[in-house]
Amino acid sequence: MAGRMLLSHNYNLLDAAVPPLERSQFAQVFVDGFAARDGISAMAIDHPHWCVEVKFDGDDAVAVGQACAEVLLAVRRSQRDDDTLPYDTLVLGGIKTTPATSVSPTALQTGDWGVDIAETGEAASFLNAINWMALTAMKPEEQVFQIEAIRGELK
């Protein structure tokens, strides 16, 4: 497969609208979610920051990020009685363009996409708190992506 993406999870919900996921549970969401899809696969990895490795055909990382959002949202909807999500989900990706800091197979390598998936009360506040605009302002558009699901609805 041509593309590689590493996922991390930031559970930033105070009201427990959905249960927190342990690292292995978070990884299993994507292993199961991509099991029947052609051209994309996921597996749990052992790394201090990254939880999941996603490999995919082609070079459309934004579409893969969108697929990650859809898979997680479907699982989260199934965990609620009313099928609504009263919080926001962000899928924030950037391609590594600098030399890798580790040769470990679970570390982000040059050309890989690092993707942080955040479940948060409010997307705008979270993005401000991590200074997303400043972090991405100097990067070419094709090197970053931002996918938002506001109250469970993909934008």
What does this protein look like?
- The structure is a single chain.
- The chain is α+β, with helices and mostly antiparallel strands and 155 residues long.
- It has one domain (3-154).
- The protein is 28% helix and 29% strand.
- The protein has four helices and seven strands; from the N terminus they run E-H-E-E-H-E-E-H-H-E-E.
- It has helices at 23-34, 61-78, 123-129, 132-137, and strands at residues 3-12, 40-44, 52-56, 88-95, 113-120, 144-150, 153-154.
- It has a seven-stranded mixed beta sheet with strand order 2-3-1-5-4-6-7, with helices on one face.
- Strand 2 (40-44) and strand 3 form a beta hairpin.
- Helix 1 packs across helix 2.
- The longest helix is centred in the middle third of the chain and has 18 residues, at 61-78.
- The radius of gyration is 15 Å and the shape is globular.
- The relative contact order is 0.23.
- The mean pLDDT is 94.
